[in-house]
Design a protein that fits this description.
The protein is α+β, with helices and mostly antiparallel strands and 63 residues long. 25% of the residues lie in helices and 29% in strands.
């Protein structure tokens, strides 16, 4: 399943927020992304599936 976020009619920062709330599936740990998220007030959780896929959920840290 592919998720497309159409930000053309959204006002900032909604496109970025919607993107960062999406589910990310990877086979590797995206450490550079984690560094960027941490510096910008985001948190994430990570779960490794049986096939080695890493399911990463990104969310804004509570204020």
């Amino acid at each position: 399943m592919t998720t497309v976020i159409d930000g053309r009619e959204m006002q900032p920062p909604e496109p970025m927020e919607r993107t960062l709330e999406a589910l990310l599936l990877l086979y590797c740990q995206p450490q550079p992304l984690f560094n960027i998220l941490g510096k910008n007030g985001y948190a994430w959780s990570e779960e490794v599936r049986a096939d080695g896929t890493r399911e990463i959920r990104i969310r804004k840290r509570p204020v």
